[in-house]
Specification:
Elements (H helix, E strand, L loop, with lengths): L2 H6 L1 H4 L5 H10 L1 E5 L5 H11 L3 E5 L24 H12 L4 E5 L5 H10 L2 E4 L4 H14 L3 E7 L2 E7 L9 H4 L11 H4 L3 H20 L8 E6 L4 E6 L13
Parallel strand pairs: 1-2, 1-4, 2-3, 4-5
Antiparallel strand pairs: 5-6, 6-7, 7-8
Helix pairs in contact: 4-5, 4-10, 6-7
Length: 249
């Protein structure tokens, strides 16, 4: 790191268990962020500000006026523009030295597999059940840690799924395919705006912890938050012995 970086990241470096080594790890890391909406906005901004050196943002949606109540990476001038491009510009405004690449189409098949394989860590900030299942499978097959979050109405949750941890569960252990149709989204059910900031920031924190090896991650645990009553709850999650994604590994 040069003198400017040492100053910029000094509050990280002051942390005894993080120090220069942790910051250098972030500067060299590559993160794949799927979704640049309510959750993706704080994730993108915090990872960019924290010094993650290479961030790939994927979103095929455009900014709508109804998004601005909670999607803090976008503004009025971004309405009608692609969310990944808008979020990439927001990161660059916070940290011009970060390398940011925007993908403006939905990734499927080989394209998804290639992007997952090229990343050090993957973050799910989507609100689409089928995308979540595809991403989970790709991460498990490629041996990549997946930081997952969801937020709707007044409630949200965060978890981390890591194929490198023996006998740990995957996303599909938490939500079997049969439950796909019951998952809620913000467009149909609403969401209180700061909730996505709480959940997205927690995802960013978990991502930094996983990349640097500092602290204990949420692997095997689901962290639930009830914003209406300001209550956090940790629930253990075990591998489903019949899971079609992770049970055989």
């Amino acid at each position: 790191m040069d003198d400017a970086q040492l100053l910029k990241y000094s509050r990280h470096i002051m942390l005894p268990d993080f120090d220069v080594a942790g910051q250098e790890t972030l500067l060299q890391a590559k993160v794949l962020l799927i979704g640049a909406g309510g959750l993706g906005s704080p994730i993108a901004l915090y990872l960019g500000a924290a010094g993650v050196g290479n961030i790939v943002i994927v979103d095929d949606d455009k900014v709508d006026a109804s998004n601005l109540q909670r999607q803090i990476a976008h503004g009025d001038d971004d309405i009608g523009h692609n969310k990944a491009v808008s979020a990439a510009a927001a990161i660059s405004a916070v940290n011009p030295t970060a390398t940011v690449h925007a993908i403006t189409q939905r990734l499927v098949g080989d394209a998804l597999t290639q992007q997952v394989a090229a990343a050090d860590l993957v973050i799910d900030a989507t609100d689409n059940a089928q995308t979540r299942y595809l991403l989970n499978r790709a991460c498990w097959q490629q041996g990549k840690t997946l930081v997952s979050g969801a937020a709707v109405r007044w409630e949200g949750h965060v978890s981390v799924f890591s194929p490198s941890v023996p006998n740990s569960p995957c996303y599909q252990c938490l939500y079997p395919d049969t439950e796909a149709e019951t998952q809620l989204n913000c467009a149909d059910n609403g969401v209180i705006s700061p909730l996505v900031g709480v959940i997205g920031s927690t995802q960013a924190l978990e991502a930094i912890k996983c990349l640097t090896g500092v602290g204990q991650s949420l692997v095997g645990t689901v962290l639930f938050f009830d914003g209406k009553y300001a209550e956090w709850q940790r629930i253990g999650l075990s591998r489903n012995p019949h899971c079609p994604v992770c049970a055989a590994s």
